[in-house]
Amino acid sequence: MPYIKRFCISGSAFWGWHTDIDLDDMDNMEDIIQIVKQRLKAWVDVAARATQQDDMHGLYKAIEDLTLNCHGVTFGDILVSDPETIFYLCHCDHDHSFSSDADLDTHTD
Ligand SMILES: [Zn+2]
């Protein structure tokens, strides 16, 4: 039985791009972020083939350079979330503070 959740990129040139992932195939957050980037590359592949553009190196580099974070959310949180929940993957390489989300579970430290 598939266990699908939607993940949406927020930030970067790919803001708004989303993909649905079956969590049965995933073991942790790193797996999710890896598959999001793989599918984003595959999506560019499709566009490149359809338009016979083989010079999309900048776009592939931009995907390589994406550092995606699902702040304040653990893999366990995603597993038990409501079916309609969309998870936003932030493009950044640092921790934000969640001053306005004091009730967010933080599992760090
Ligand atoms: Zn961030």
Question: Care to describe what's here?
Answer:
This protein is of the alpha+beta class. It has one domain. The chain has 3 helices and 4 strands. The protein has helices at residues 29-50, 57-64, 75-79; strands at residues 4-10, 18-22, 68-69, 86-91. Helix 1 packs antiparallel against helix 2. The N and C termini lie far apart (35 Å). Residues 99-109 have low confidence and may be disordered. Bound molecules: zinc ion. The site of zinc ion has 5 residues, from loops. Residues 69, 71, 90, 92, 96 line the site of zinc ion.
Secondary structure elements and pairings:
Blueprint: E1 4-10, E2 18-22, H1 29-50, H2 57-64, E3 68-69, H3 75-79, E4 86-91
Parallel strand pairs: 1-4
Antiparallel strand pairs: 1-2, 3-4
Helix pairs in contact: 1-2
The structure holds zinc ion.
Indicate the proportion of strand residues. 15-25%
Q: How many strand elements? A: 4
Class by helix and strand content?
alpha+beta
Helix content: 25-40%
Small-molecule binders here are: zinc ion
Tell me briefly what this model is.
By secondary structure, this protein is α+β, with helices and mostly antiparallel strands. It has helices at 29-50, 57-64, 75-79; strands at 4-10, 18-22, 68-69, 86-91.
Any descriptors?
single chain, 109 residues, 3 helices, 4 strands, 18% strand, globular, disordered C terminus, binds zinc ion
